[in-house]
């Protein structure tokens, strides 16, 4: 059986996870948030006190890490060495840690198999930074989801405030700009739009319109 894969890439705060999750639900596909895998590795390295700027030290702890994605009642949960870390990996400091470890070639290689195995066995909507360019280069549909930095920062700020985080908009914007630079300038699988990806600029779209754009695009391409 040939399964359908939808790759959604884009910068931090573009709404990839929420849009991809709802789109998958409407399409009857499973959803895979690949960024959560890198966040889990970043969390482990942070807890171990590993120097995130030293690729060799990050690579050295990979044998100690087992990351799993499980669907529980239709909701994705991320387990790090058997511990559910689905909430912890969303902390702002772990976002930066994820960006750092994602630049390490050994980390990307270790997680690549997990991501591809999910796509091989399911109709999936998968989001991340390099899904359409590296992870699933032959995906049936590729979408590059983005928005203006200020809009993305405001969305991320509102999300963090709802979760009780004590952050300022300026801090979130600075963090976002730093991650944008790191993600697009790293040597290993930098963030970029695949040549055959459809651009979705959601600056002037609300959540519902963004989901409708993705679902309509998938149906039209298939």
How does the SSE layout of this entry go?
Blueprint: E1 5-9, H1 16-27, E2 30-33, H2 35-48, H3 55-60, E3 67-72, E4 75-80, E5 83-84, H4 92-101, H5 105-120, E6 124-128, H6 131-135, E7 141-146, H7 149-162, H8 169-185, E8 198-201, H9 207-221
Parallel strand pairs: 1-6, 1-7, 2-6, 7-8
Antiparallel strand pairs: 3-4, 4-5
Helix pairs in contact: 1-9, 2-4, 4-8, 7-8
In brief, what are we looking at here?
With 222 residues, the protein is α/β, with parallel strands linked by helices. It has a single domain (5-221), classed as Rossmann fold (3-Layer(aba) Sandwich). It is built from nine helices and eight strands.
Written overview of the protein:
With 222 residues, the chain is of the alpha/beta class. The protein has a single domain (5-221), classed as 3-Layer(aba) Sandwich (Rossmann fold). Helix content is 49%, strand content 17%. Strands 2-6-1-7-8 form a 5-stranded parallel sheet, sandwiched between helices. A 3-stranded antiparallel sheet has the order 3-4-5. Helix 2 crosses helix 4. It is globular. The mean pLDDT is 92.
């Amino acid at each position: 059986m040939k399964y359908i894969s939808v790759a959604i890439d884009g910068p931090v705060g573009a709404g990839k996870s929420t849009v991809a999750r709802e789109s998958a639900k409407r399409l009857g596909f499973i959803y895979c948030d690949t960024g959560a895998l890198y966040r889990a590795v970043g969390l482990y390295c942070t807890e171990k006190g590993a120097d995130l700027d030293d690729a060799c030290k990050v690579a050295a702890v990979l044998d100690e890490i087992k990351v799993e994605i499980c669907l529980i009642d239709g909701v994705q949960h991320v387990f790090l060495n058997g511990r559910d870390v689905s909430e912890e990996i969303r902390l702002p400091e772990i976002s930066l840690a994820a960006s750092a470890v994602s630049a390490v070639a050994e980390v990307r290689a270790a997680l690549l198999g997990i991501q591809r195995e999910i796509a091989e066995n399911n109709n999936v909507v998968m989001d991340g930074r390099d899904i359409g360019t590296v992870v699933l280069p032959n995906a049936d549909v590729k979408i590059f989801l983005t928005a203006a930095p200020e809009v993305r920062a405001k969305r991320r700020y509102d999300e963090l405030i709802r979760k009780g985080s004590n952050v300022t908009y300026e801090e979130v914007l600075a963090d976002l700009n730093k991650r944008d630079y790191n993600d697009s300038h790293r040597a290993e699988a930098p963030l970029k739009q695949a040549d055959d990806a459809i651009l979705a600029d959601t600056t002037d779209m609300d959540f519902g319109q963004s989901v409708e754009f993705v679902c309509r695009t998938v149906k039209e391409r298939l």
